[in-house]
Amino acid sequence: MGLGDKTAALALAERAIAANPLEKDAVSGPSPIETLARVAAQMGEPDRAIAALQKLLSIPAVTDTAAPFTAALLRLDPMFDPLRNDSRFQELVAPAGKALSAPPEISEKSIAVLPFENRSSDPENTFFTDGVQDEILTDLARVADLKVISRTSVMQ
């Protein structure tokens, strides 16, 4: 980002916001704010990053990702890893209606292994694809607290 030039990278992000302000373009305006948040997060400027994120989350923004900018997506985005320990960031990404200190609800975990397709030219290799699926199912069945969907249920 900015080829190591923190000042230039942040200045360029700020210029993009000034060139296309949110107040004048509600469609494209959020994208430069997202860029500033990303640059600031990566360049060790948590105050600027969090301010930009707060602004983005306060509006119905669709940015360059073509998806609404939400706290749920923000929780998953590795670009914001430098902010993960900041209490302000944690408040931004906390699920709505839940206290930060409350442990997350653990839902029942389940998995299904879809059948593998025999892509070889030899139809007799089908036994191999079935065997791979069975082996994975057997290994997953050994995992505690994991519900494994049976092969017959998956095939329906």
Outline:
The chain is mostly helical.
Described by its quaternary structure, the protein is single chain
Q: Residue-averaged pLDDT, rounded?
A: 80
How many discrete domains?
2
User: Level of helix content?
Assistant: 40-55%
How many runs of DSSP E, i.e. beta strands?
2
Poorly predicted tracts of residues? none
The number of helical segments is 7
Radius of gyration: 23 Å
Notes on the protein architecture:
By secondary structure, the chain is mainly α. It has two domains: 2-93, no CATH class; 109-155, no CATH class. It is 47% helix and 4% strand. The chain has a two-stranded parallel sheet. Helix 2 packs antiparallel against helix 3 (46-57). The longest helix is centred in the last third of the chain and has 16 residues, at 126-141. The model has no long low-confidence stretch (mean pLDDT 80).
Keywords for this structure?
156 residues; mainly alpha; two-stranded parallel sheet; 2 strands; elongated
Please outline the helices and strands.
Elements: H1 6-19, H2 30-42, H3 46-57, H4 71-76, H5 87-93, E1 109-111, H6 126-141, E2 146-148, H7 151-155
Parallel strand pairs: 1-2
